[in-house]
Structure formats: C-alpha cells, structure tokens
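tool=predict chain=A
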Amino acid sequence: MTSHRVVSRDEWLEARRALLEREKQATRLRDEINAERLALPWVRVDESYVFDTPAGKARLADLFDGRSQLIVYHFMLAPGWPAGCDGCSFLCDHLDGALVHLNHHDVTLTAVSRASLPEIEAYKRRMGWRFPWVSSHPSRFNYDFGVSFDADQRAAGSVVYNYRDEPVETAFEELPGLSAFARDEAGAVYHTYSSFARGCEELIGTLMILDRAPKGRNEGSTMDFVRRHDEYDVPLKTACHGAAAT
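tool=predict ok
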C-alpha cells in the first residue's frame, strides 16, 4: 500500500469537501462537453459500405436494426489474428448489460472488425459475449473511419489517427475507436461523432470503479494490468493481439 497521511476525521472531511468541489467542477464540465458533442454538425455518408453479418450481407443503414441511432465500436481484430485486442476485449466485457437499455432508447450498438465473420464469431464464443458484431472485411469502412491502416498508408511514415499524425512506430495495423451515426426517416445515414484512444475510456466501468479504490488504477502505463478475462493466469504479452490461451 502506498504511504498516505493518517489524520483525524475532521481533517479528512475538510480535504474531502475540497475534493468534492473539484468533482462538481468536473461534472459540470462533462455536461458542457456533452452538449457541445450533441451540437456537432453531421456529415452525410454516401459510401455504400457492405458488412458480413450472421444474417448475410448488410449495408451501414441495415446495422441500425430499425432504430435511428447507431454506435459502432471499432474492435481491433484483423484477419488472421489469433485473438482480439485485450484492451478492446476489456471494454467489450462491459457492453452486454447495456444493450437492453440502449435498444429501448432508440440506440443500436454493434462492434465492427476487419476479421472475417467466422473469426469474429469464434472469438465472440470464446468470450461469451452477446452484443452484435459484424465484419467490415468486404469494404473500406475501418480504413475510412481512421482505425485501420494499410501498407500504402503506413509507407508514408505516419498515419492520421485521433485527428493528428501518428508515427507508424506507434500506429499499428489496427487501433481502437468509436463512431456514432444517425439515420433519418428517408433512410439517409449521417456520421455524427468519432472518438479514439482514451476517448472511449468512459465506456469501461471497471476503470471508473478503480478510480475510486484506494490504489486507483495502480498502473505503470495505460491499462497495463489488463488481460482477457480468461487469461489472468497467463503471463502478459507484448502485443495486445498475442497468441490466445488454450
């Protein structure tokens, strides 16, 4: 346990009240940012993206499943990888319980990866997940939305990730992100928002709980403690998509 001062209850209450004011400031700032996010302009999506789904081929508009809002989690799983990204897997462990609430609030959530549908479904079975997950392999969807990078893009020495140039040394073949879309009554689809890297962190309830634990996240680098939920007895791998445990 890290060393902390031990004080009287009165002194603790004084410090806690001071922190509460900071927490209230953060809550108000979050509300302001949420309002600004909702006020962002939209971009119409005219590209005819095609996805492989358990029900067959589907367009982006079909992924809404009859609702007017769609959240896509760009899951790092490329063709041929033996397992999905451990960080993406950590995030997606939190999604199933939200589905019923999102669906009843006119929001569909799905994961999208470039891996083939059989590869996706095999990993989904291993993890025991229920949320929708489709393959963008037939299209440029993940490339166009800034989370996958082909050889030509990487040959330039840097790629555009999280709205800035990222050196290829730190920009892998796949990177995480989240994109939001709206569909109007005429069937037109609009891109409304995307977020990358730690921008998706608030979806991970475990981190929010750890932030309130005595040791916090207790990490040396971002999420260095994370394993796939069936691998906590397996030594840490250097690549997030390292060989899966058997």
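Residues 9-38 form the longest helix (30 residues). The chain has seven helices and ten strands.
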